[in-house]
Amino acid sequence: MKDKEWQKINPQACSTIRLCLAKDQKCSVMGKTSAKELWQKLEEKYMTKSLENRIYLKKKLFRFEYRQGIFMTEHLDDFNKIIADLMNIDVKIDDDDKALLLLNSIPDSYDHFTHTLINRKTEVKYDVVSATLMNNEYRKTDKHAHRDSSSDALTVRGRSDDRTSGSKSRFK
Questions:
Q1: Confidence band, pLDDT 50/70/90 cuts, at residue 87
Q2: Is-contact 57 87, C-beta < 8 A?
């Protein structure tokens, strides 16, 4: 790329990067005017491959738990962000371990679900666990919505036992 083109694009690139940052993250890079410098500063601060950062992220992963009241999609997104952060600092986690850590993070109310999923298997895949959790949530949501809508639609009118009103009985 020519210098003239880069001078035009560089401020736009810096602005785009800054738009993606939280307020507390912007403070450390406010003086940077080059997208390359800005990106390097962010990498240096947040993607260091230090022992301290690895320990922090691994603790975060091992202590990760489902927060009551959130959707399973949000829980999976949060889990995947931690996994991505670990991958960015070159920490590799086996697929089997990811699946088991995810199963460990869900509440005890899912124990039956967990036992059913891993019954008589020697290994479990992360994609299978996450897809099954999502399908389980969709099924519960659909069941709940269907129950609410169908309960109002079913109205039964019965025949009154009072035979003296209106018409005469066939039996006397």
A1: very high
A2: no
Residue 38 near residue 14, CB atoms below 8 Å = yes
C-alpha span between 25 and 47 (Å, rounded)? 13
d(CA 80, CA 83): 5
Report how far residue 47's alpha carbon sits from residue 90's, in angstroms, rounded to the nearest whole number. Answer: 10
Both tokens assigned to 49: 């491959």
Instruction: Please state, in angstroms and rounded to a whole number, the distance separating the CA atoms of residues 98 and 104.
Output: 10
Q: Please, what's the b/e burial string for 57-69 (b: 16 or more CB within 10 A of its CB; e: otherwise)?
A: beeebeebebeee
Q: Residues with Cβ < 8 Å from 129, sequence gap 6 or more? A: 99, 102, 103, 117
Q: Compute the half-sphere exposure of residue 129: CA atoms within 13 Å on the CB side of its CA.
A: 26
- Per-residue pLDDT of 118-149, as tens digits, reads 887 888 999 999 999 999 888 887 777 666 55
Q: Which two tokens stand for residue 172?
A: 């006397």
